[in-house]
Amino acid sequence: xxxxxxxxxxxxxxxxxxxxxxxxxxxxxxxxxxxxxxxxxxxxxxxxxxxxxxxxxxxxxxxxxxxxxx
Length: 70
Fold this sequence. Notes:
Blueprint: E1 12-14, E2 17-18, H1 22-31, E3 38-45, E4 48-53, E5 56-60, H2 62-65, E6 68-69
Antiparallel strand pairs: 1-3, 2-6, 3-4, 4-5
């Protein structure tokens, strides 16, 4: 298991765990980041990630991406 921020561009991983406070986990779940869901890193710019999850593209900061374990 590793943080999503360490995944390679173009690589599809499956979410295994979401860490952080309850409100942070709830926010990520509302964006589509739930355990078992595939997520792909589309690109990385200045430490921020563009991710593809549930047929949507979402931008996350490195800090938030560190809370998603794949």
